[in-house]
Amino acid sequence: MAQIGGIELANVTKQFGDTLAIDSVSMIVPPGTYCCLLGPSGCGKTTLLRMIAGHDEPTAGDVLIDGQSVLGLPPAKRGTAMMFQSYALFPHLTCLDNVAFNLKVRGVAKAERRKQAHEMLDRVQMDGFADRVPAELSGGQQQRIALARSLITNPKVLLLDEPLSALDEFLRLQMRGNLRQMQKEFGITFVHVTHTQMEAIAVAELVIVMDHGQIDQADSARGVYDTPHTTYVARFIGGQNVLGGKVVRVESGAALLEDARGNRFTVPSGDPAPDTGETRYLSIRRDWIEMEKLADPSATHSDAVNSVVGKVWMTEYQGTWVKVSITLPDGEEFVANINDGTFFANPAREGDTVVARWSAEAVHSLEHRESSFDTSRGGMQA
Ligand code: ATP
Q: Do residues 197 and 236 make contact, with C-beta atoms less than 8 angstroms apart?
């Protein structure tokens, strides 16, 4: 099936009075892509979505769908449809009439719109519910009806604003799989706004991480998780420890860094290599850390390169791994996700002094960029 609904934003800016909601954003979403806009509250996700949908116009810049500028066009002429958080179903109409509604608005004759609505209900496996009203449906079933209602106009792009936030945990997991399946089946572009990191990386092929009206990183799900570009993305997505230090020396493609406590870490030196005294940042995945209890409870640093020493303040059993939260002497949190078998062979307890170490290959170099968003509480658990 041909993939449609390619989106291009060219230097799009949106100003609301004194608030610069979107700051000269350029991005490309290839046709038939499942894309998530991810970022903390107020970063501009909804504003960007509304400008693609045609519910708002940029102050400057251009929005293109399948290569054509859509500025000034209403949603129907752009080929966009929007599905809202609350689903906005008409309570007094049956599922069939809810789904047929957008065809009625477009003047499609009754028999034809009922036929198309039945077909669409069938595609979302809800034809058996055609005569029910929304109050007689579960949250997941309402979402399917809302999806069917949005898709009946054959949009090229479906925009979804926090589509899973009204559902409980169990349904959320089920429905995110359904959304992905529907997107594949219809071959159109989905742009899904969320502030939940796990949801974005589970569902999206393209994750766009935003902050303060700008894009920090547009990448595959694995790209934003495994190779974040900045300290902000590493902290916001989570699953990583972020450290920094001053360059002591550079040799054989690696820079040796030292932090204020005298801990030393290596990081790929990059090209051009940094000068001595410059500050550099790195991330190490929480699941790539080895941990060992120390006999000396007063130890505060380790002489070994690529290690830190701290006190365990919390352990959380997660099934296949144990999340060990360690406080470093400067108060920073460091997390090691230890495989459950390894952990329980010699379990660390709260208050134990431990050394956490990693291999030089596990280190990923970061650009320094912070956000006002408090990333210490925002990242994913894993
Ligand atoms: P959330 O996750 O909380 O919905 P968001 O990332 O979707 O946040 P937006 O709703 O796009 O953020 O808002 C971005 C910025 O623009 C915010 O500072 C917001 O207050 C501002 N803003 C959005 N809409 C308007 C408006 N109609 N008038 C004035 N300011 C607005």
A: yes
Residue nearest to atom 7 of ligand 1 (CA): 46
Q: Which atom of ligand 1 is nearest to the CA of 210?
A: 6
List the one residue out of 6, 5, 13 whose CA is nearest residue 62: 13
- Residue 23 has a CB neighbour count (10 Å cut-off) of 15
Q: Do 202 and 282 share a structural domain?
A: no
- Residue whose entry in the numeric block shows the structure tokens 């925002």: 378
User: Do 298 and 149 belong together in one domain?
Assistant: no
For residue 175, the surrounding DSSP H or E stretch is: helix 169-186
Whether 87 and 235 map to the same domain: the answer is no
Distance 4 CA to ligand 1 centre (A): 29
CATH number at residue 310: 2.40.50.100
Q: From start to end of 47-169, where are the E strands?
A: 60-65, 68-69, 80-83, 157-161
Flag whether 1 is in a domain: no
How far, in Å, from the CA of 146 to the mean position of ligand 1? 24
Which atom of ligand 1 is found nearest the CA of 17?
29
By alpha-carbon position, which residue is closest to atom 9 of ligand 1? 44
pTM equals 0.90
Interval 10-52: pLDDT, tens: 999 999 999 999 999 999 999 999 999 999 999 999 999 999 9
Report the greatest alpha carbon distance in the chain.
81
CA of 337 to the centre of ligand 1 (A): 36
